[in-house]
Design brief:
two-stranded antiparallel sheet; globular; single chain; 318 residues; mainly alpha
């Protein structure tokens, strides 16, 4: 039954732009934003859900990917498809640079350092005007093109991010059921026990940072070419908190829970932004926070909790 629901959900997502909804362009834009946040949440879930490390600086990797893609597109005219490998390398390198010196930290200390990383990225983007144009932002980013065809319609960008989502999903599911995934879950449950069983903590934590940061950078690259304008304010700390909330709401460590949580929360923020009066539009964050508090009170493990017993069965069968 669960597998059938997943297949139905993927089919609905695949054909969503073809449904005759009123205001289909706006709906498709919200759907594109939702799938983008699913990709970002899946990337952060590797660190938070799989490896059990509280990362508050994920938006830094998102911003790095966006600015690498935006600046190189504007100055050198690189196509989106050539930028993807470059952004993956930039994200992985930044993840390694952040992960390596912070591995001895745990708990709140680790979270504070990752928070500082996100703020440092924003400060560099805002103040290094010679490179990033600072508060003026980067405008004139060309749209994505393929064999001379420029993508300008919302449904075209929806399918691009949907394909990226499918690739990321398949990659993460393979990781989840692999030796690497088992090592991450072992670290999440008990680092000392994992180390006693031969798990190299440094290697697997750095690997988690590198892969997670790469996925965040891919999301940033797509965002830059889709929105065609980037600004330092787009990558503030709130974005890290939002992506973390998607994981907590859906169920940390559960890939399908993360997807469900994003599908619920991201459209809800858009609905609240449209139905609330202009003077109360910021109150949607209060409603958003209240919903999360209620969720943590009555279902602290999320909509689809992570089941260690189920994972153990999968590990034995593999």
């Amino acid at each position: 039954m669960e597998r059938k629901l997943k297949i139905v959900g993927l089919i609905i997502g695949l054909f969503l732009p073809l449904f005759p909804f009123p205001g289909i362009d706006y709906i498709t834009r919200v759907a594109t934003l939702t799938v983008l946040y699913i990709v970002l949440a899946l990337g952060l879930n590797i660190i938070v859900g799989f490896a059990g490390l509280l990362d508050l600086g994920y938006v830094g990797f998102y911003g790095i990917g966006a600015y690498v893609a935006g600046l190189i597109s504007v100055h050198y005219g690189w196509g989106f498809w050539y930028l993807i490998p470059l952004c993956i390398c930039a994200g992985a390198l930044s993840g390694i640079l952040l992960g390596t010196p912070t591995l001895r930290l745990t708990g709140d200390y680790f979270a504070i350092v990752t928070f500082g990383f996100a703020e440092l990225v924003v400060l560099l983007i805002r103040n290094e005007i010679w490179l990033t144009r600072g508060p003026m932002g980067v405008a004139g980013i060309p749209p994505i093109s393929f064999f001379g065809h420029q993508f300008t319609k919302e449904w075209e960008y929806y399918y691009i991010i949907f394909i990226i989502f499918l690739i990321v999903l398949l990659f993460i599911k393979r990781l989840e059921n692999s030796k690497i995934g088992r090592a991450w879950f072992a670290i999440r449950e008990d680092e000392i026990a994992a180390q006693c069983c031969g798990v190299n903590l440094v290697r697997y934590k750095v690997l988690a940072f590198a892969i997670s940061a790469s996925i965040g950078a891919i999301g940033g690259a797509f965002y830059a070419r889709w929105f065609r304008f980037i600004h330092p304010d787009m990558f503030k700390f709130w974005e890290s908190i939002l992506i973390l909330c998607l994981i907590v709401f859906g169920g940390m460590g559960n890939v399908w829970g993360v997807i469900l949580g994003t599908i619920v929360l991201i459209p809800m923020t858009e609905i609240l932004r449209n139905i609330l009066p202009q003077e109360f539009v910021q109150a949607r964050y209060l409603i958003f926070g209240a919903l999360l508090v209620i969720m943590m009170r009555f279902r602290p493990n999320g909509l689809l909790p992570f089941s260690r017993e189920r994972k153990d069965e999968n590990f034995k069968s593999s």
